[in-house]
Each structure stands twice: as C-alpha cells, then as structure tokens.
C-alpha cells in the first residue's frame, strides 16, 4: 500500500513485520523497526509520519464495515497484531471495550 505522497511502497505481513521499498531500490525489501510508544501499541515511522501497526494490518487484511473506523484487538493484547486478531469496530464499540478493560 502506498502511504501519503510517498513513492515508497509498504507491505505488512499478516503474521509479523512491516517492510518497505524505496524508489532507488524497488526490488529490495527492508524491515521497518516497530516501536512500542503509546499504551503498548506498536507504531512505526514511514516517510516522517507515525502509523499504528495494528491499523496498517487491519487496513491490509480485515474487512471494514460502514462506520467502523476503530481497530479492536480481539484477544485484548495490544501487541498481537496478527490479522486474525484484529477487527474494525465503531467508536462506540471501542469505548465499550475500553470501559470493560478499565482503560
């Protein structure tokens, strides 16, 4: 998937890792370093913008229903970013999950 106005292409494995190509080396994949920055959620910086890894995975591999803008970790583990563990949800549904977890 292309992000922003970048000529880089970014790939996300459905099990682990975020990889990208640069215009100067389009056939070479390099791994992006994932960092835990906000409440245990993994994030990466691509083209000077920070992305949540779970959101990138969901955009690439999960069905997004109408009005569902948030991404929920089904097992409530914020570092488990496998596509099978993610689902899109509404803001209201996300707030219900947060209250249940005491966040």
From TrEMBL:
<protein>
    <submittedName>
        <fullName>5566_t:CDS:1</fullName>
    </submittedName>
</protein>
<dbReference type="InterPro" id="IPR044925">
    <property type="entry name" value="His-Me_finger_sf"/>
</dbReference>
<feature type="compositionally biased region" description="Polar residues">
    <location>
        <begin position="1"/>
        <end position="18"/>
    </location>
</feature>
<feature type="region of interest" description="Disordered">
    <location>
        <begin position="1"/>
        <end position="24"/>
    </location>
</feature>
